[in-house]
Here is the input.
Amino acid sequence: MKKIISGKVREVYDLEDGRMVIVTTDRLSAFDVILPTLITDKGKVLNALSNFWFDYTKDIVKNHMISSDLKDMPAEFQKPEYEGRTILVKKLKMIPYEVIVRGYMFGSMYDALKNGKLPEGVHFDRDYNLAERLDTPIVTPSTKAKEGHDINVSLDYMKNDIGADLAGKIEKAALAIYNKAYEHAYKNGIIIADTKFEFGLDEDGNLVLADEVLTPDSSRFWNLATYKVGTSPASYDKQFVRDWLKANNLAGDPNIKSIPADVVAKTSEIYKECQKKICHA
Here is the structure.
């Protein structure tokens, strides 16, 4: 067994038998800096949400989950600190794209619309206000950069790269997952404005959903109760920490020493509220 990835949030271990162990930590990254203070139970929340969605969408597409039971994992992981934040998954041949599904006009897409510089292949039949729901969700892929920021590309670019058949399956699966998850979340007071998925292929060439799914770290989750078109909606994610960093002129500062306890507690509470609404915990 060897550690193959130590990311901003996750540690990935290759069991070298076609399986991997993924541990979701309580680390938080903001403005491209991994913060020195852990957010209590954040990793457990992200893990619980991903596991819920993997099960909820398994009728649409296969996923990489094997088990979340520590007893199924190597002895090194059968310890209390790994409980609730560790999964055993199938190793896949990953497709080198992040598949972004956008259901609302927000973020970089809104900026592009206002500047008249929509990404190649993206067209809208009408104008949209900030945070307005799109008539139809769209898929906008991005290449996965080893360093720096990912690069947005068109669906045609992805089709030319990996083949129209596979790209078509990915687009169909991503939209189906988003639509099913959107309805569930909406009924429980959360709007999934957008999200990103990652897919791979198993040994038989089947499309498989992987990585994390529909968490506050990979999606924009808005509070339905306070949502209003034309405003920047309150979100269930690390925005509270980001706002604190900006207010204290610490955004992007790699030398930050710590995050105050009250900011950590509030951020942890926001993540847990999201889990409670989605998973009925």
The chain has six helices and 15 strands.
